[in-house]
């Protein structure tokens, strides 16, 4: 018994040595701490000190306060940060903690979106929103998806929110919670909108997808159908907006009026829709994924994974015995078509029920004469191709809804120029055309410019003309006849060829040219003018009667006092882009009082606008200024812009001290570690 007890009281020699070393280590640590505290106390004696404790989840306030008092400071302020509200309340001893948290910011946003003010549901709403956001804390994309879901549908029931919260996991993986949040928004969509979303699985991961391309394909595929093409397009546009509002589509390029021009897919969304598309049989499993984007879904095309799109173009009949099922052929980005014109002939003679044909961003220079065999074709996209100017002059497709053309290149200086194809000679017979952009007048008088006035379905018109009186008069006559339907108008005016330019133009009396446009388009929302004409200023002409104008772009032109007044008086103008514009005020853009009342976006690119001045009461809703020139001189009056959130300059541009001081003096300015920004 004695030996046994002695063994328990006195462990083995090795264990004893380890215990002694451990005790000595603790003593050493304690002495080191005391030495450190002594040095800190000596350093802080009689000082006023600020102590910051980050992520104080493991501290107890009593112990912390005692340790801080031992430092002997004459006065001390302590800032404690924590992610958890309960810990914050423990440290604050009955006073409200100061909240600086993205979670709290998004919770308040959620309450504002759902209009949950003082009522029976207020406490419940605040708690459930906070719980959902806390579970998504590790992934901002997940948080934003929830906020966008509330924005799209603020009338969420308790049951929906409880179900969502129960499906999420506190600090769960991005994939787990992200999938649940995507499904929450997806389940709220109408059936055809779900199909339109899953359709995007045909595109490559991280691919930038153009809005016009996507909507044209949706309608051509029959994913959205209404009583006619305009109604179908309108519904497809609405579908696009809904998906973007829900953050299922990530905006990539945004126009000056805030309209999304192209999108990408977040990796989590892309993974979700590819899985769902297979489950819902949206994708044709017999077609390799790298070829799917070229064809209609369920087109019965059979190509081996080792095949390329060119194998199909060489002999379409070998890939399918049911080519009449192919409604879409999208060759965007495909090379090697220039030297293989017969491939396009094969398409035109084999796919006679084709509705959508895109040659965008290819090297095609000519359209085969067999193109007119595609009498069911509704969309022809030949943008950004080196197409010969005469390639479309004999085009005659009676069911064509959209003819999209034009190639932007570099002109003199920093300006860009647009080259394109001629307007079809018999365009007046293509009565279903809704979009004709961008095409060039074919000859001196260009009577087809006047004949477009017979296309009463036309909503979008983009034309290039020479600064000839006859062309300008015919164009204005055609636009006047379209005053009940035209919504977007783009005009580029080129100087006459050198041979004709040698003769001074016969300039008519003021107002004689504008008399040809008796009726300005009532529904016009978007206007772009590039170049100048010696005959008359076009901007005041269209601004005068187009009260719905929301977006104006001026390029390579001049801007005088009357032009500025015309723009300032537009009641719905939200976006203004000035590209290489010459001012009558010698480089100083003066935004005068009581104009531009709804302007949100101002973009200045190139040219000589080196000074901008905002007067009191001007542009009260302006949120974004993009100023992309290198020779900036001064910026005045931005304190008069209460809604200003963002200013963008060229990378590496050296801003004058006056400009920096003006920005730093703005009420919305935030200085973060020396990096200034507006919020």
From TrEMBL:
Lineage: superkingdom: Eukaryota
A single Gene Ontology biological process assigned to it is: plant-type hypersensitive response
The reply on keyword Repeat is yes
SUPFAM superfamilies recorded for this chain?
Answer: L domain-like, P-loop containing nucleoside triphosphate hydrolases
Please list the residue ranges annotated as the Disease resistance R13L4/SHOC-2-like LRR domain.
319-648
Q: Which UniProt keywords apply?
A: Plant defense, Repeat
Q: Which InterPro entries match?
A: Disease_R_plants, LRR_dom_sf, LRR_R13L4/SHOC2-like, P-loop_NTPase, WH-like_DNA-bd_sf, WHD_DRP
Record domain Disease resistance protein winged helix: where: 202-273
Spell out the Pfam families in the cross-references.
LRR_14, WHD_DRP
* PANTHER family assigned: DISEASE RESISTANCE PROTEIN RP (PTHR23155), OS11G0579400 PROTEIN (PTHR23155:SF1062)
Q: What is this protein called?
A: NB-ARC domain-containing protein
């Amino acid at each position: 018994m004695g030996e046994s007890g002695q063994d328990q009281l006195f462990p083995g020699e090795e264990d004893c040595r380890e215990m002694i070393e451990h005790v000595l280590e603790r003593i050493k640590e304690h002495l080191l701490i005391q030495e450190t505290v002594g040095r800190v106390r000596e350093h802080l004696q009689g000082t006023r000190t600020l102590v910051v404790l980050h992520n104080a989840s493991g501290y107890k306030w009593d112990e912390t306060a005692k340790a801080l008092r031992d430092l002997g400071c004459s006065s001390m302020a302590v800032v404690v940060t924590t992610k958890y509200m309960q810990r914050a309340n423990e440290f604050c001893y009955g006073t409200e903690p100061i909240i600086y948290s993205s979670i709290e910011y998004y919770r308040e946003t959620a309450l504002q979106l759902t209009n949950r003010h003082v009522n029976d549901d207020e406490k419940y709403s605040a708690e459930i929103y906070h719980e959902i956001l806390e579970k998504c804390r590790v992934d901002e994309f997940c948080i934003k998806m929830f906020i966008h879901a509330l924005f799209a549908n603020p009338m969420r029931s308790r049951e929906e929110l409880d179900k969502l919260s129960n499906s999420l996991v506190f600090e769960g993986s991005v994939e787990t919670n992200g999938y649940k949040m995507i499904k929450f928004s997806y389940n709220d969509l109408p059936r055809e909108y779900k199909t339109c979303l899953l359709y995007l699985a045909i595109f490559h991961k991280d691919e930038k997808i153009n809005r016009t391309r996507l909507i044209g394909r949706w309608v051509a595929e029959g994913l959205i159908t209404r009583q006619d093409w305009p109604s179908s397009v309108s519904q497809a546009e609405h579908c696009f907006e809904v998906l973007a509002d829900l953050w299922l589509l990530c905006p990539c390029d945004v126009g000056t009026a805030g309209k999304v021009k192209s999108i990408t897919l977040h990796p989590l969304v892309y993974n979700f829709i590819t899985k769902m598309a297979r489950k819902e049989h949206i994708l044709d499993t017999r077609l390799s994924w790298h070829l799917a984007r070229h064809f209609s879904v369920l087109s019965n095309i059979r190509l081996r994974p080792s095949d390329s799109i060119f194998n199909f173009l060489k002999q379409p009949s070998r890939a399918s015995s049911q080519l009449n099922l192919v409604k879409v052929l999208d060759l965007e980005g495909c090379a090697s078509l220039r030297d293989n014109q017969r491939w396009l002939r094969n398409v035109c003679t084999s796919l006679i029920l084709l509705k959508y044909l895109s040659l965008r961003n290819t090297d095609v220079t000519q359209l085969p004469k067999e193109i007119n065999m595609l009498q069911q074709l509704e969309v022809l996209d030949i943008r950004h191709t080196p197409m010969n100017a005469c390639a479309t002059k004999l085009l005659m497709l009676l069911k064509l809804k959209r003819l999209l053309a034009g190639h932007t290149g570099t002109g003199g200086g920093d300006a860009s120029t647009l080259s394109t194809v001629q307007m079809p000679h018999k365009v007046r017979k293509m009565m279903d055309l809704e979009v004709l952009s961008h095409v060039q007048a074919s000859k001196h008088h260009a009577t087809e410019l006047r004949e477009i006035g017979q296309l009463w379905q036309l909503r979008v018109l983009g034309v290039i003309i020479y600064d000839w009186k006859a062309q300008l008069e015919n164009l204005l006559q055609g636009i006047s006849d379209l005053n009940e339907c035209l919504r977007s108008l783009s005009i580029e005016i080129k100087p006459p060829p050198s041979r004709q330019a040698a003769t001074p133009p016969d300039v008519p009396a003021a107002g004689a040219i504008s008399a040809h446009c008796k009726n300005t388009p009532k529904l016009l929302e978007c206007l772009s003018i590039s170049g100048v004409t010696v005959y008359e200023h076009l901007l005041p002409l269209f601004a005068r009667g187009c009260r719905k104008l929301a977006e104006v772009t001026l390029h390579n032109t001049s801007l005088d006092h009357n032009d500025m007044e015309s723009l300032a008086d537009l009641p719905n103008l939200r976006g203004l882009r000035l590209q290489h514009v010459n001012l009558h005020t010698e480089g100083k853009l003066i935004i005068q009082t009581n104009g531009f009342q709804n302007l949100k976006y101002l973009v200045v690119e190139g040219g000589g606008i080196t000074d901008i001045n905002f007067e009191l009461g001007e542009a009260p809703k302006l949120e974004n200024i993009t100023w992309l020139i290198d020779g900036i001189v001064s910026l005045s009056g931005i304190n008069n812009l209460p809604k200003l959130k963002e200013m963008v300059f060229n990378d590496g541009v050296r801003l004058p001290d006056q400009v920096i001081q003006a920005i730093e003096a703005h009420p919305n300015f935030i200085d973060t570690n020396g990096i200034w920004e507006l919020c």
